[in-house]
Amino acid sequence: MRLLHAKTMELRSFQEDEVPEYAILSHTWHDDEVLFEDLHDMDRASKQAGFRKIRFCCEQALKDDIQFVWVDTCCIDKSSSAELSEAINSMFLWYREAKVCYAYLQDVSALVIGNGRIQSRWFERAWTLQELLAPKSLVFYSSDWNFLGTKDDHLQSAISWATGIEVEDLSGKWLKWVSIAKRMSWAARRKATRGEDIAYSLFGIFDVQMPLLYGEGRRKAFLRLQEEIMKSSNDHTLFAWTKRRGVFNPATATMSILAPDPYCFINERRLEPTKKINPSPPYSMTNIGLRISLPLFYKTGWPLPLSTIVVAALNCHIEGDYFQVAALHLRYVGSNQFLRCTVVDSLYLVRTDFLSNFTTKEIFIRNDYEEVEIIDTHYRRRAFILRDLPPVVNVDGHGTSKIREVYPPEFWLNGANVIQGLWIGDKTQSWHACVDLIIDTEKLPRHICLVLGVDVRRGDRPWEDVPPWDEHNLQFSSWFTAFLDPTETLAELHKRDFSRVRENFNGSCEYEGLKTTLNEASGDRDYVPFMFVMEEWTCVVDFDGSIKPR
């Protein structure tokens, strides 16, 4: 370890067992810092802007009867990659072992403090997070090196407000007992000049060491960090992240089991591992993905894509809530492998009393680095939601309406009133389904056949048709109509050519046409017996197995 003599300002090197008492400086970097090589010419170094805080630090150390100081700008030879790597991997320990740490808030004056708030760039930088938590004694100084307070006195609430770290965690003594998700949330909004430093600055907070690979990028560095963390931890909160930068888009349906950024944990600071008599089985990262044993819930017999979605319960819960556990949505992709799904943009919870319906199984959750856009291939279908099918009321009395048949039958998701078509990414030009609706009144049962479809050639635009039949023989010039013989089955109707859909599609006009047709068929022009709404549908499987359109 290289230290700066506070009186002579000479650099001296010490072996690990020979390091004397020292003070350490915490600050934010600015232009014209004094670097290791600059100290060879003290006359030039003393004229640099960064020299002022080094001088302040040395003077304060001497007042505190400390002979040596450590300053990251000038005590590390950054031209040596080996020395830089050693310093970054040791930095948390160096701050922990210092007799005192001086935090220099260059953009704060002594007059700013007073309303329980501190606003400073120091609270926003990645490296200063460990410099806040590691020191046993941390003293804050203003831009003019005036004493502001310590992290153990009246500044505690202001520091907690500025960092989002609870007062009881500021000492940093019990870091290993703080959940991974909570520690990650502290770094969620912090910034670094180099993207990789977002991960490298967290080494000490998670008590890991790993080589530096500047140039690998922010995301890969953070993924490597998480892989290193799981080697010595079985904390499932590592996988319970939910938030992503940008607008939530369920179309980006799968991603790595590991978070791409600390920001993903911004809402998970209240998560903690669930303590059990029998601890969770160990898990590990393999070349396939994360190998882990989890309780799984799935429903057999559902049509795709629902049969590929499972709920996996994690061994963690929200602080104080012992009746629910966090869970993930996973999509089965074959060979006992799963991908994490973006079904909702919030923490998904499962009641503990429902866990008896889960089956524990060892699975592989793939750690694909790139988010997979599967809206066009696997996960979402264009679907028609039949919103309402109420009793028919007309002048003759009460009646009922119901769906007798849907063709093809595999398109019909019974119980959700949803007709699912082909995958949106299918290469076919269009698809359609036929619905046989019975309007049963006291006067006469009537059949209405709806033909619903999507024309892929025109950007997946939906269309609907009412093929008239029997005595009504209703036709609308703006519609393409197919005549259904009373003896014709839906399967036979489905074979007809419905490709000649009107090119000048107008949703509102077409809906009005459907409304008029249904009124004609029911014999009541003032009542819509069958409210029909088309919209895209994303499958959501609730913890109890229910299906909810979004």
TrEMBL record:
Superkingdom per UniProt: Eukaryota
Heterokaryon incompatibility domain ranges (all copies): 22-108
Domain DUF8212: 220-244
One matching Pfam family: HET
Signal sequence interval, chain numbering: none
InterPro entries: DUF8212, HET
Record protein name field: HET-domain-containing protein
Native species: Hyaloscypha variabilis (strain UAMH 11265 / GT02V1 / F) (Meliniomyces variabilis)
